[in-house]
Design brief:
The protein has 161 residues and is α/β, with parallel strands linked by helices. It has a single domain, classed as Ribonuclease E inhibitor RraA/RraA-like (Glucose Oxidase, domain 1, 3-Layer(bba) Sandwich). Helices cover 18% and strands 34% of the residues. The protein is built from four helices and twelve strands, in the order H-E-E-E-H-E-E-H-E-H-E-E-E-E-E-E. The strands form two sheets. Strands 1, 2, 3, 4, 5, 6, 7, 8, 11 and 12 form a ten-stranded mixed beta sheet that branches. Helix 2 runs parallel beside helix 3. It is globular, with a radius of gyration of 14 Å.
Length: 161
């Protein structure tokens, strides 16, 4: 993946949406892209686990955790599961835990912060609906491009050749 978000931003200008700088890199991969799949949940990561159990097929899981800083929605086991199942990356509008282990996992992970507390598991949340945070809307089937400089969203796949 030889893209750079700065180059994509220059080339596509008003055809991409740029996430407000709010997520930090935690994964073992710092540059990732793919079609969007979403989970909307608040302090309950049940649907996050269910999503990452599916074949990722190069998708990026976008988790709208409501920006909660009170618990983690992703840990080392779920990140490893996502990597094993072919997910390209995970964006978390909330916290992760087990950051040292996640840093050695072959998946892109960006999140707001770390928190040692695990989430509850009540099966509450929604899947594959548009979610909005950081000034942009993440729509399932649109495309995410992420690297150390930021996160872009495009309605169509961008040729990276």
């Amino acid at each position: 993946m030889a893209f750079h978000t700065s180059d994509l931003s220059d080339a596509l200008e008003d055809r991409v949406h740029i996430l407000v700088p709010m997520l930090h890199d935690f994964g073992g991969v710092s540059r990732f892209n793919g079609p969007i799949s979403t989970v909307k949940c608040f302090e309950d990561n049940s649907l996050v686990g269910a999503a990452l159990e599916e074949p990722g097929q190069g998708r990026v899981l976008v988790i709208d955790g409501g920006g909660s800083l009170r618990c983690a929605l992703l840990g080392d086991r779920l990140a490893a599961l996502g990597a094993h199942n072919g997910w390209s990356g995970i964006l978390v509008y909330g916290c992760i835990r087990d950051s040292e282990a996640i840093a050695h996992t072959s998946i892109g992970v960006k999140a707001m912060a770390t928190h040692p507390r695990k989430s509850v598991k009540r099966g509450v949340g929604e899947r594959d609906l548009p979610v909005h945070f950081g000034g942009i809307t993440f729509t399932p089937g649109h495309f995410v491009y992420a690297d150390p400089d930021g996160v872009l969203v495009s309605e169509i796949a961008v040729s990276l050749d």
